[in-house]
Design goal:
180 residues; 6 helices; 24% strand
């Protein structure tokens, strides 16, 4: 069986396209609820005037609904890797319940991520950085080492990261590993 990865909120799809191109033996489900992101991804995968006949890469599937819905449908230990790169920070405290990194969602993530699976997370938002540190520091499902201040070389860049760096914001990069 091929490895299975999930990217939550793929934005314009730069990271997802790089992953499927570099890892043809890995299947990727790329989730995005916003039409602009979906259209951006498809416009880079489908040649003009070939919308009816073009095929997506064989190892890519698009999910255009909430990723949490998909998580509930996935079998136990079915994911080998999870990507959450530069998510919407929902900076107001009353919006914190909307964050993907949330104590209530961790059991579901722990269920679908196989033992030893990696969860890569990056954000440039100080509020979200503090939130991730707090939430992941208080859980026992994942090894939660300190974040890196520079993108690991094996991570494809994203346009959100480029915008953050250009604006002078300092991203942090975490790799959480599902405990066995």
């Amino acid at each position: 069986m091929r490895a299975l990865s999930l990217e939550v909120g793929f934005g314009g799809g730069e990271h997802a396209r790089a992953v499927v191109a570099a890892h043809p033996d890995t299947a990727l489900i790329a989730c995005e609820v916003f039409d602009n992101g979906i259209c951006s991804m498809l416009s880079r995968l489908v040649p003009p005037d070939h919308e009816a006949t073009a095929k997506l890469p064989g190892n890519l599937r698009l999910w255009t609904d909430d990723a949490r819905t998909l998580l509930r449908l996935l079998p136990d230990a079915s994911l080998d890797r999870l990507f959450l790169l530069f998510p919407d920070p929902w900076p107001k405290s009353r919006h914190a319940k909307r964050r993907f990194v949330h104590p209530a969602l961790l059991p579901e993530l722990g269920r679908v991520l196989a033992p030893g699976a990696a969860w890569r997370l990056a954000t440039d938002d100080p509020t979200y950085q503090a939130w991730v540190t707090e939430v992941m520091g208080g859980q026992s499902l994942f090894d939660a080492p300190a974040p890196a201040a520079e993108r690991p070389s094996c991570w494809p860049p994203t346009r959100y990261e480029a915008k953050a760096l250009l604006a002078g914001r300092a991203p942090l990069y975490w790799t959480f590993v599902r405990r066995r």
